[in-house]
Amino acid sequence: MAGWRDGGTAGDIATRVHLFAGTVRNFLSSATEKLGVATRVEALERARDHGWL
């Protein structure tokens, strides 16, 4: 099962963390908006660059 670090779908992530896929999509959308990026990959890169992960 793929996870957010390796491009997993919202459904894959939801299964892993025991949430609904829609909830994960909402969390991802909110995070990318707050970080000022367009994609989850950019969000991950920004988080790594700032030492958040």
| Major sheet description | none
Radius of gyration: 11 Å
Instruction: Provide mean pLDDT, rounded.
Output: 86
Shape: globular
Number of strands: 0
State the name of the first-level CATH class.
Mainly Alpha
Number of helical segments? 3
List the helices and strands in order.
Answer: HHH
CATH architecture heading: Orthogonal Bundle
Distance between the termini: 21 Å
What structural class do helix, strand and pairing data support? mainly alpha
How large a portion of the residues is in β-strands, by DSSP E? under 5%
- Helix content range of the residues, please? 55-70%
CATH topology name: Arc Repressor Mutant, subunit A
Write down the domain tally. 1
- Unreliable residue stretches: none
Structure overview:
- The protein is mainly α and 53 residues long.
- It has one domain: Orthogonal Bundle (Arc Repressor Mutant, subunit A).
- 62% of the residues lie in helices and 0% in strands.
- The chain contains 3 helices and no strands.
- The longest helix has 15 residues.
- The chain is globular and about 30 Å long.
- The protein starts with 9 loop residues before the first helix and ends with a helix.
- 6% of the residues are buried.
- The mean pLDDT is 86.
